[in-house]
Structure to design on (490 residues):
């Protein structure tokens, strides 16, 4: 059996149907944003209707193929990879309903966040919180519990109040708190494992202006007063510059002040902050001892001053993530955040004293997310602190990151961490059973929604399937590659 479908014998009608949905160049190769994972789907298809998706699920079941819907491929892992049928969901991009009184908007699942902001803005509404970028599709963002920051604000999955999903048997299921409640709680963060989401309704709020203030602060002062810091504004995040104790704290509140756009400067932020910095990091690959000094310089030239700006919320939440990178991000109960950062600092400083030690890049990004009731959200039943670490890949070139990741993950795991689903991690079935009270329920529901494993790619097999389910897939020859470890490309 070949799940990538190289031996599938389609009928002439199926062949015509599939050919009609083809998109992209022949031999299309999927690459994620950071170019760290890639795959060559057998067919890259762009359906436009739910009927077409249901027919694709029927064909996949008949020929024992798998299907992977994607957003914009921003996940820094192989979660969106497949060598079988890959679905580009860009044609699912319409507004379906708007309720101004309840402040809700129903959209198709492929809508990108930047399109969604415009759709909402035109209707005088906005999302209550956002992550660093707005390139993602709304379905891709909720599939991995994409989050922003704020002790009273949860992740994007928790903003969904109703959705429609087509499961692995081709059933079209509507779910909400009032209908198919278990499916609703599971599907709001499903990693794409339960089916294809075609539309969803979001709880929004009236459009608002944010007033952001960014200040340089000392890491110890923040960690010693963390409970004051996290409640010092509606949305608080900070970036620590490792190898130093310098930190930048970003605070934002809803405001009625007149707009005052971000004080960005081409020279400082683009030429120096992006291009010069990338060149310096490239050179530091041959001389890593330069990295701590580079970090210090970068902090004092770009961040060592107070700045503030006022603008539409969606313009203020996002920020420039610079260039491709390896990233790792886990969420710990927020009360453990200071301990996690202290342990990480001890290790980074010890490495800096060792001539052969690892030199890490800035920043370590720290954000807070309110607890919710989405079964697989890292914020399920607990308010969390996400701590993100990063190693840039200047001009797509490799840098050593594995030792840093190992120590970071050990710290986060010991402190009760749950990994961000979009990012490559090493939590498997039994770890997840321990970490998530509802993981067993999710696994059971997955088997019901997808009895023939139509939505199982290597990531899903590796992380969500039990050892016996994995063994069944392997025995049937139903997996195309290793399912025991991920292989990030350097
Ligand atoms: C530069 C950068 C900045 C980022 N910033 C943040 C941040 O601030 N906060 C944060 O939490 N994350 C952040 N991320 C991670 C990002 O939000 C997630 O990886 C998100 O899942 C990407 O969305 P996507 O549309 O690219 O989805 P993809 O990466 O294309 O897919 C992700 C998953 O969604 C599933 N999926 C897509 N569409 C559907 C559908 N219609 N039905 C069912 N499943 C579907 C896919 O099958 C896959 O499993 C960032 C990533 C990058 C590269």
């Amino acid at each position: 059996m070949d799940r990538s479908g190289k031996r599938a014998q389609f009928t002439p009608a199926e062949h015509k149907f599939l050919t009609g949905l083809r998109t992209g160049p022949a031999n299309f190769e999927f690459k994620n944003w950071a170019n760290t994972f890639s795959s060559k789907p057998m067919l890259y298809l762009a359906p436009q209707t739910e009927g077409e998706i249901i027919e694709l699920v029927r064909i996949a079941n008949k020929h024992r193929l798998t299907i992977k819907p994607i957003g914009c491929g921003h996940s820094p892992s192989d979660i969106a990879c497949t060598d079988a049928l890959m679905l580009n969901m860009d044609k699912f991009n319409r507004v379906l309903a708007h309720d101004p009184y309840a402040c809700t908007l129903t959209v198709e699942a492929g809508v990108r966040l930047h399109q969604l902001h415009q759709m909402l803005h035109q209707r005088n509404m906005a999302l209550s919180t956002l992550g660093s970028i707005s390139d993602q599709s709304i379905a891709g963002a909720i599939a991995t519990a994409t989050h922003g920051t704020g002790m009273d604000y949860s992740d994007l999955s928790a903003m969904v109040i109703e959705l429609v999903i087509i499961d692995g048997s081709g059933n079209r299921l509507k779910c909400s708190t009032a209908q198919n409640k278990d499916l609703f709680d599971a599907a709001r963060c499903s990693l794409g494992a339960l089916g294809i989401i075609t539309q969803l309704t979001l709880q929004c709020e009236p459009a608002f202006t944010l007033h952001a203030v960014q200040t340089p602060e000392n890491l110890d002062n923040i960690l010693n007063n963390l409970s004051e810091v996290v409640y010092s504004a509606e949305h608080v995040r900070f970036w620590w510059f490792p190898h130093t104790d310098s930190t930048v704290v970003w605070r934002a509140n809803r405001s009625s002040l007149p707009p005052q756009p971000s004080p960005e400067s081409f020279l400082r932020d683009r030429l120096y902050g992006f291009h010069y910095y990338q060149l310096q990091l490239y050179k530091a690959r041959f001389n890593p001892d330069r990295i701590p000094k580079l970090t210090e310089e970068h902090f004092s030239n770009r961040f060592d001053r107070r700045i503030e700006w006022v603008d539409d919320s969606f313009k203020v939440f996002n920020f420039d993530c610079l260039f491709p990178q390896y990233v790792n991000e886990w969420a710990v109960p927020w009360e453990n955040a200071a301990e996690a950062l202290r342990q990480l600092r001890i290790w980074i400083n010890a490495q800096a004293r060792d001539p052969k030690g690892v030199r890490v890049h800035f920043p370590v990004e720290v954000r807070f997310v309110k607890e919710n009731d989405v079964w697989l959200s890292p914020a399920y039943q607990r308010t969390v602190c996400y701590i993100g670490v990063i190693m840039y890949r200047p001009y797509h070139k490799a840098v050593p990151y594995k030792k840093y990741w190992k120590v970071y993950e050990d710290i986060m795991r010991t402190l009760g961490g749950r990994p961000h689903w979009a990012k490559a991690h090493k939590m498997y079935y039994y770890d997840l059973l321990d970490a998530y009270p509802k993981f067993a329920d999710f696994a059971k529901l997955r088997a019901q929604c997808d009895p023939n494993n139509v939505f199982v790619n290597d990531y899903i097999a590796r992380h969500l399937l039990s050892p016996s389910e994995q063994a069944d897939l392997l025995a049937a020859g139903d997996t195309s590659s290793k399912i025991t470890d991920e292989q990030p490309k350097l």
Observations:
- The pocket of flavin-adenine dinucleotide is lined by residues 33, 68-76, 79-80, 89, 109, 131-133, 136-137, 139-141, 143-144, 146-147, 191-192, 196-197, 321, 420, 422 (CB under 6 Å).
